[in-house]
Design brief:
Blueprint: H1 4-18, E1 23-28, H2 39-46, E2 50-57, E3 60-66, E4 80-85, E5 90-95, E6 105-111, E7 116-121, E8 127-132, H3 151-158, H4 165-170, H5 180-190, H6 203-222, E9 263-267, E10 270-274
Antiparallel strand pairs: 1-6, 2-3, 3-4, 4-8, 5-7, 6-7, 9-10
Helix pairs in contact: 1-6, 5-6
The protein binds a DNA duplex (16 and 16 nucleotides) through helix 5.
DNA sequence: CATTTCACCTGGTGGC
DNA sequence: TGCCACCAGGTGAAAT
């Protein structure tokens, strides 16, 4: 469900509540879920570990884990990671153990402090993964981070590509973290049609797009993300950026800039919203 | 290789 | 109220 701003908001919330806590008990539902790591391996790996920190990479929530047991020397060195991808409907919540168990709860981590981390996912598009860190690098998403990528590198991502710019924005191998909402919103702000071929955009248009994306993503993070249907942060609180959307899910409604009705088309199989007047 | 399409799931909404 | 078609923030495998 969530894109970069929502994942960032959740990761910050979870980090603030569980950083330094220890996982005492792990539970997984029997419901079949196509995890990247089997439930039993995750359960075994997570039990006893300390959560050193929680952060976002692309659309992934990465929990850095310290060794199980008492290990004073390497206390702050992560030796494993628990990686959570929320798919479309996934939630990662920090609750008390007494709280009612929501339908589609697939994982529960009991913590020493008494808190509980829960993974809930109706559609089961989410993915959980447990990794031991040997000497290898930490987890990194394939694409560039859209909020820190520079002008030249950003433009380079699209050079020579024939696919629609909207489809390119959604490709996690190019940029990681951009989904349907922020692709549409950034293209609106940059005044670019979603179906334009990526490789045909001018240098100016690409720079406008990069800056629009940065602005839209940081505004959304500031407002706690977009709650379109059921997105909530680690405390179950909704975001407010959906109130700022200019085009996304506003089919037929007047453009906030010129009053023209917003159009909906299909690009790369995804509902795509744009203003026919403001965008090209 | 690049690009497109489709399957994977459940739930909410709006029309009849 | 019920039934049905359609829509939904994502990804990765299969097809083109």
């Amino acid at each position: 469900m969530p894109e970069l701003p929502e994942v960032e908001t959740i990761a910050r919330g979870v980090n603030a509540r569980v950083r330094g806590d220890r996982i005492t008990e792990v539970w997984f539902s029997k419901h079949k879920q196509p995890f990247k790591t089997s439930a039993s391996i995750q359960a075994k790996g997570l039990a006893g570990r300390t959560i050193l920190s929680v952060h976002r990479t692309g659309k992934h929530i990465v929990c850095e884990l310290g060794d199980a047991g008492l290990n004073e020397t390497s206390k702050n060195e992560p030796t494993a990671q628990w990686i959570v991808h929320l798919g479309m409907t996934g939630r990662l919540l920090v609750t008390t153990p007494e709280g009612p168990i929501a339908a589609h709860t697939h994982a529960r981590l009991s913590l020493e402090s008494g808190r509980e981390v829960r993974f809930v996912d109706a559609r089961r598009f989410g993915r959980l993964e447990f990794r031991e860190l040997k000497r290898t690098e930490g987890f990194s998403a394939a694409g560039q981070e859209p909020m820190t990528v520079g002008t030249v590198e950003f433009a380079g991502l699209f050079r020579g590509r024939k696919l629609a710019i909207k489809a390119a924005l959604l490709n996690q191998g190019l940029l990681s973290g951009v989904g349907n909402i922020y692709a549409d919103e950034s293209l609106f702000q940059a005044g670019i049609r979603p179906r334009r071929r990526a490789g045909r955009l001018t240098r100016d248009e690409l720079e406008r797009l990069r800056l629009s994306l940065l602005a839209v993503l940081s505004d959304s993070i500031r407002l706690g993300g977009s709650s379109v249907s059921d997105y909530v942060d680690a405390d179950g609180v909704r975001g407010f950026f959906q109130l700022e959307h200019c085009v996304y899910l506003r089919t037929g409604q007047p453009c906030r800039q010129c009053g023209t009705p917003i159009k909906r088309i299909l690009v790369a199989g995804r509902g795509t919203h744009y203003c026919p007047k403001c965008q090209g």
